[in-house]
Automatic annotation (TrEMBL):
One of its GO terms (biological process) is protein transport. It is a peripheral membrane protein. It is found in: Mitochondrion inner membrane. This is Mitochondrial import inner membrane translocase subunit. Heterohexamer.
Length: 88
C-alpha cells in the first residue's frame, strides 16, 4: 500500500471542504467587484436612485447565486450519502 492509498479519508474530506470554501470566497470577491464596477459611476455623498436599484439587483442576484452554490455544495460534498439532503 503506498502513501496515496493510505491517506486519511477525514483529512481528504477536510481539504476538499476547505478548497471549496476558498473557491466560494473567490466567487464572493469577484461578484463584489463586478457589482461595484457595474453600479458605481462616481462615488458621492448619496446614492442616486439608478445606483441604488442597480446595487439592489446585484445583491439579489448574489443571494440567488449563493443559494444555488450552497445547495450544490450540500448535495455533492459535505453530506455525501445515498440520499442527498434537500435544501429549502
Amino acid at each position: 500500500m503506498n502513501e496515496e492509498q493510505s491517506a486519511d479519508p477525514q483529512l481528504e474530506n477536510f481539504i476538499l471542504t476547505e478548497t471549496q470554501k476558498q473557491r466560494f470566497q473567490v466567487l464572493v470577491h469577484g461578484l463584489t467587484d463586478t457589482c461595484w464596477d457595474t453600479c458605481m459611476g462616481r462615488p458621492s455623498v448619496r446614492l442616486d436612485s439608478k445606483t441604488e436599484v442597480c446595487i439592489m439587483n446585484c445583491v439579489e442576484r448574489f443571494i440567488d447565486a449563493t443559494t444555488f452554490i450552497t445547495k450544490r455544495l450540500m448535495n455533492t460534498t459535505k453530506y455525501r450519502s445515498d440520499e442527498p439532503l434537500e435544501f429549502q
